[in-house]
Amino acid sequence: MRILYIDIDSLRPDHLGCYGYHRNTSPNIDSIAERGTHFTNYYTSDAPCAPSRNALFKSQFGIHTGVINHGGLEADNRAIGENRPFNHHHTAYQSWVDVLRFQGLHTAMISPFPGRHANWSVLEGFLEMHDTGKHAGETAGDVTAEALRWIKGRGAEKEDWFLYLNFWDPHTPYRTPVSYGNPFKEDPAPEWLTDEMINRHRESFGPMSARELPAEQLWPDLPKEITSRLDFEKWIDGYDTAIRYADDHVGIILDALKEEGILEDIFIIISADHGENQGELNVYGDHQTADHITNRIPLIIAGPNVSQGHIDEDFHYQIDLGPTLTELAGGEQREKWDGTSFLPALTEKKSSGRPYLVVSQAAWSCQRSVRFDKWILIRTYHDGLKDFPELMLFDLESDPHETENVIEQHPEIVGKGLQLLDAWVAEQMASSDSPTDPMWNVIQEGGPYHTRGNLENYLISLRQDGRHEAAMRLESRHEKLQHIYKARRGTK
Asked: Domain map of the chain by residue range?
């Protein structure tokens, strides 16, 4: 058995052809979908980067591992405590990659991720680790060169293996080589975002909002602000070109596998750590929320006995993938895993999903959201300096870009969502090794890592920019949090 897992950072599924996108961003990825199964309601349990991949490799929710932030107390895995075994082999805490290793697969990773986020625990079970060395500043060419070296000669070997391969191109700053050009210059950008919406965004606020794009840009002709549809089109060109560039390199890897004579024998997985808001909730080119756009990710799987051309619409977490691969390799589920196998969905087209999902974010904002039926209910505990109310409800069938908060129109749906959220938190805490919900620790520390300590300077910036009403709203909202921060610091 040979498994290739290609993780493309910040890749939202609705910008891929196989998920219905109108631009030709992904011909090679689409070819994998044609001969396999792809999943339309596959979500990361914990966004963004480090919480997502930590949860993936441990098959545990962030509420259990403690890894929900990008810095501070809750960016490291919590100690197991007095029940910690000598090692994790064949115990409840064993990682699924380690299980694959014990099932006879040679396990390897090509990625700068562990070093970039100082998250070395994700390496448990890997026999090889190749750091591509640029701390996520890599282009696909850097990663592909290392991958081709690893693949060369594998066709002559009988060894089973699992290779995790990590591309970063769709993550800002967009870094596609200038020589590649803009393949989408003549293609229209998505039509959902109007000039009227952009004007509303500009009167609002938040990191990576319409007025506050990052200063560092590597790709030419990107706007410094979103002032109109024209700016939006240029911005989306940068993102979509990065996807197409990564897809080209997926094609190079597929060609190498074909040359080795092993392409048809390999299980190929395409996925991501999180999606990418591109105007949704007034976030452009970032992953700051626990919403449909940031937490929904692609999952495409092709390989021996995988149903061809099948589309699975059930709810799944990314933490379910490890147990699925474990079952595929003949291994057994571990007691501490929160994920569950959906192998029957792959090989028999059988429904293997969950009734609902709870997804989280705590690095840019503190949110938990419930995805059920056609709805997503977003509860904000700390806004991360963004213009978010405490509760937002979106009908994803009619409003997949989350433009209209319909909380007032559907109180019964809000009530159901809150009940599901409360029940989920209670269930997870009952099975936790720790008595503390990590979300509250993040809030007590001062909020999500990327905006912590920035309130006063940001209020000054808003007022200098003429957004006095926005500054007043934000300041008022944060007054109730001050006593929490002071209690943590031991001040009055």
From this structure: 1-353, 358-486
